Amino acid sequence: MTPKTPSESRTTMTDMVLPSETNALQNLFGGELLARMDRAASIAAGRHSRRITVTASVNHVAFNLAVPLGSVVTVEAAVSRAYTTSMEVYIDVWIEDRYNGKRTKANEAIYTFVAVDETGKPTEVPPLKPESDLEKERYAGALRRKQLSLGTGR
Ligand SMILES: CC(C)(COP(=O)(O)OP(=O)(O)OC[C@H]1O[C@@H](n2cnc3c(N)ncnc32)[C@H](O)[C@@H]1OP(=O)(O)O)[C@@H](O)C(=O)NCCC(=O)NCCS
Predict the structure, then answer these.
(1) Residues 27-36: pLDDT tens digits?
(2) Check: CATH 3.10.129.10 for 6-146?
(3) What is the pLDDT of residue 152?
(4) Which of 85, 110, 114, 154 to mutate for ligand 1's pocket (most ligand atoms within 8 Å of CB)?
(5) Integer Cα distance of 37 and 54 in angstroms
(6) Does residue 112 line the site of ligand 1, with CB under 6 A?
(7) Ligand 1 neighbourhood includes 35 CB (under 6 angstroms)
(8) Residue of the nearest CA to atom 18 in ligand 1?
(9) Would the CB of 49 count as within 6 Å of ligand 1?
């Protein structure tokens, strides 16, 4: 299969935080952010594989910064490494300053997706060819993460 670059799967979703999506402190509810990240990552995995994809695991989530009500939130997802049928997807979350448009990194997460056929059976995906320094760094880190998770039986 012909390798693909992370740019080919990169998915950007921008949306705002509404009152129904917040916790008691008027910040974005964690589960809502997980869902937004899952959607963006699913699209990225689908763009890389051009197959149906399912979330296999959420490997790492860091809620570093609260995201207040009314914030403009951008979720960016791209495949960081592809294996035989699974893909690691790296997700960055940014919030945008209302007045000057400056973006601040709020959160990040790493999800694993598996490409499946119409019956739900795992199916092969193209390899990933990282280009930028950051993409190469995430690609190398992904293998270490996979090896660690294999140590736990996966
Ligand atoms: C993910 C799923 C397709 C894997 O099916 P399976 O028959 O266990 O697949 P295999 O053991 O052959 O593994 C297939 C690939 O998935 C990976 N994988 C399976 N479970 C995984 C997990 N929990 N975390 C990370 N990777 C996983 C394997 O490492 C393998 O990767 P590789 O082919 O790139 O080496 C299956 O478990 C499934 O459908 N799960 C439900 C998914 C779902 O509904 N998600 C939404 C949750 S609400």
Answers:
(1) 999 999 999 9
(2) yes
(3) 58
(4) 114
(5) 13
(6) yes
(7) no
(8) 56
(9) no
Domain boundaries, the chain: 6-146
11-61 pLDDT, tens digit each: 999 999 999 999 999 999 999 999 999 999 999 999 999 999 999 999 889
86 CA closest ligand 1 atom index:
34
pLDDT band with cut points at 50, 70 and 90 for residue 146: confident
The DSSP bridge pattern shows strands 52-63 and 72-82 to be: unpaired
Q: Which residues, including other chains, have CB under 8 Å from residue 94's CB and lie 6 or more apart?
A: 73, 74, 76, 103, 104, 105, 106
Query: Structure tokens of 18?
Result: 């509404």
Report the separation in Å between the CA atom of 101 and the middle of ligand 1, taken as the mean of its atom positions. Answer: 39
